[in-house]
């Protein structure tokens, strides 16, 4: 996790949790059009209205704190079936479940 992602996580965790959701993780992808992806979850699942509520709340926080110096798109979603795992707790929660993994090096076969 980058320093910016750590700062953003600290900044938005409380507002997301105040709405009753778990902040699963975030990704900030720099590019011609940078994107801040926020993944949320709850015991009841996530729907579009949940994502909109979190988007509005997080946008308000980011507008005041202004931690991102470039233009970016904000995306809020559930982690979905292909959920990324961000913390050790995520691995523990899904112990015994089937997973697929991808190497950061792009190799699919042993050396």
TrEMBL record:
Gene Ontology cellular-component terms for this entry are: cytosol
- What GO terms describe the biological role, i.e. biological process, of this protein? ribosomal small subunit assembly; translation
Domain Ribosome maturation factor RimP N-terminal: from-to ranges = 11-82
Keyword match Transmembrane helix: no
Keywords of this protein's UniProt record, alphabetized? Cytoplasm, Ribosome biogenesis
Chief location of this protein within or outside the cell: cytoplasm
Can you say where in the cell this protein is located? Cytoplasm
Q: Cytoplasm: present as a keyword of the record?
A: yes
Q: Which InterPro entries match?
A: Ribosome_maturation_RimP, RimP_N, RimP_N_sf
UniProt similarity note: Belongs to the RimP family.
HAMAP family, sorted: RimP (MF_01077)
Q: What does this protein do?
A: Required for maturation of 30S ribosomal subunits.
Q: What is this protein called?
A: Ribosome maturation factor RimP
What organism is this sequence from? Enterobacter asburiae
């Amino acid at each position: 996790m980058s320093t910016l992602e750590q700062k953003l996580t600290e900044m938005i965790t409380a507002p997301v949790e105040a709405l009753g959701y778990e902040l699963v993780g975030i990704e900030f992808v720099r590019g011609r059009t940078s994107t801040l992806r926020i993944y949320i979850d709850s015991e009841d699942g996530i729907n579009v209205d949940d994502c909109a509520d979190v988007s509005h709340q997080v946008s308000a926080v980011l507008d005041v704190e202004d931690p991102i110096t470039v233009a970016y798109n904000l995306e809020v979603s559930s982690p979905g079936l292909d959920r990324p795992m961000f913390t050790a707790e995520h691995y523990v929660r899904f112990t015994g479940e089937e997973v697929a993994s991808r190497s950061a090096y792009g190799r699919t076969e042993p050396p």
